[in-house]
Amino acid sequence: MPPNAERNAKYKRILLKLSGEALTGEQEFGIDPKVLDRMALEIGQLVGIGVQVGMVIGGGNLFRGAALHAAGMERVTGDHMGMLATVMNALAMRDALERANIRSRVMSAIPMSGVVEHYDRRTAIRYLTAGDVVIFSAGTGNPFFTTDSAACLRGIEIDANVVLKATKVDGVYDRDPVRYPEATKYQRLSYDDVLDQKLGVMDLTAICLVRDHSMPVRVFDMSRRGALLNLVMGGREGTIVDEGPSQ
Ligand SMILES: Nc1ncnc2c1ncn2[C@@H]1O[C@H](COP(=O)(O)OP(=O)(O)OP(=O)(O)O)[C@@H](O)[C@H]1O
Ligand SMILES: O=c1ccn([C@@H]2O[C@H](COP(=O)(O)O)[C@@H](O)[C@H]2O)c(=O)[nH]1
């Protein structure tokens, strides 16, 4: 780590949103421990330079309410299963962090006594200030939301400098780059352009929330080694969504 890395970090407190779906890694379903271990190392580098890390992990590798509903399940039950999936991912992430000697806590928006702590904002901020990684699980605790909304909500609540969305694509494009390989990537986008163009990388509820609170979001590729540290140190990585202008 270069000298003065802590002083030079662009962000002192971040909310890192990890894609649940990307946790599957090379497996068919579930959690690939290799992905977790690599993320634990990358998060450890941030903690090592004094960056405070709050996290939200998606549940798309296990269950999504909308998909369960499409298969015939009542929607709210599906969403409850989706939120419980995020708690499982959070437990697995905590395990990987602790094996790498990084102190971490899991809090849940749904009370789960004996398994994880119930979410409390002031306690979470105390843990972050003490240098513990805090994983916020069970989304917002309410159906019909996503973990992107939960990440933006918690990011605003803990007064993070930025929400970092670590996902399977390397930024926001004018169309879904997975379906349209010729799509063009934006370096920077205004909240209003994401909303007006209905760009699908993050749900629109989440974008409205960050816009109302002027919280910048950066979308970047989770599989690119070193991308997280580079971004926190001020490097060009992914797409920034803020007041704009778009470019
Ligand atoms: N305009 C766009 N720019 C970039 N990605 C887009 C765009 N429109 C749709 N996408 C898709 O959005 C996906 C990322 O968002 P999504 O919410 O599906 O995943 P995630 O949040 O990473 O996963 P999870 O819900 O499991 O946490 C990308 O994999 C990409 O295919
Ligand atoms: O606040 C929330 C957050 C999530 N859910 C449900 O969980 C799954 C998994 O989250 P992803 O963001 O899709 O990874 C989601 O599909 C919802 O069903 C929720 O109900 N409320």
TrEMBL record:
Belongs to the UMP kinase family. It comes from Kushneria aurantia. The keyword Transferase applies. Keywords: ATP-binding, Cytoplasm, Kinase, Nucleotide-binding, Pyrimidine biosynthesis, Transferase. UMP binds at residues 59, 79, 140-147. The keyword Transferase applies. Its EC number is 2.7.4.22. It catalyses: UMP + ATP = UDP + ADP. It is found in: Cytoplasm. Pathway: Pyrimidine metabolism; CTP biosynthesis via de novo pathway; UDP from UMP (UMPK route): step 1/1. HAMAP family: PyrH_B. Homohexamer. Catalyzes the reversible phosphorylation of UMP to UDP. Residues 12-221 form the Aspartate/glutamate/uridylate kinase domain. This is Uridylate kinase. ATP binds at residues 17-20, 60, 64, 167, 173, 176. PANTHER family: URIDYLATE KINASE, URIDYLATE KINASE PUMPKIN, CHLOROPLASTIC. It comes from the Bacteria. The lineage of its organism: Bacteria, Pseudomonadati, Pseudomonadota, Gammaproteobacteria, Oceanospirillales. InterPro entries: AceGlu_kinase-like_sf, Asp/Glu/Uridylate_kinase, Uridylate_kinase, Uridylate_kinase_bac. It is an enzyme of class 2 (transferase). Its main location: cytoplasm. One of its GO terms (molecular function) is UMP kinase activity. Inhibited by UTP.
